Amino acid sequence: MNANRFDENERLRKSVKWKRPPKPMEEKLGDTLAKIFARKIEPRQKKQKGVAEYWNDLLPQGLKEHCRAENLNAGILNVVVDSPVYANELQWCQQNLLENLQKHCPKARIIKIKTRIGKII
After folding, report:
1. Which of helix, strand or coil describes residue 17?
2. Which of 5, 31, 71, 102 has its CA 20 to 30 A from that of 118?
3. Would you give the DSSP letter of residue 79?
């Protein structure tokens, strides 16, 4: 009977050992963050960098010192303007700016330019 119990215990131990999940591969945090950065952040930065550079080329000379492309989110280009006067002036040429951005930066998929008054940093 003891021999039978030993066989059962041995079979039970082997079956439990067999069903254990494999140990997860250990990865360094820096490697994980680098993968996330390459997959998620770099493409967005490339897209926004091109828009920001082209935005500065498109702006009329009098607006360049007073307007800054802040970010691009869900097709909306958010622009900071340092005074309501320049915000109003930007509104006058906004449609032309939007059409040019859509033409020259199609990957950005800009559908709207939204302005807010704030400090230009």
Report:
1. helix
2. 102
3. E
Q: What is the pTM of this model?
A: 0.62
Quickly tell me which residue has 């307007």 as its tokens.
Answer: 67
Domain ranges of the chain: 28-117
Q: Could you give the CA distance from residue 65 to residue 99 in angstroms, rounded to a whole number?
A: 22
Per-residue buried b or exposed e for 3-27, using 16+ beta carbons within 10 Å of the residue's own CB: eeeeeeeeeeeeeeeeeeeeeeeee
Long-range CB contacts (< 8 A, 24+ apart) of 40-47?
47/72, 47/105, 47/107, 47/108
Which tens digit of pLDDT belongs to each residue from 33-65? 888 878 877 776 666 667 888 888 889 888 889
**Number of separate helices (H) and strands (E) present in the chain:** 5, 3
Could you tell me whether strands 112-117 and 76-81 are parallel, antiparallel, or unpaired per DSSP bridges? Answer: parallel
| 28-117 is a CATH 3.30.390.30 domain | no
Q: Cα separation of 67 and 118, whole Å?
A: 10
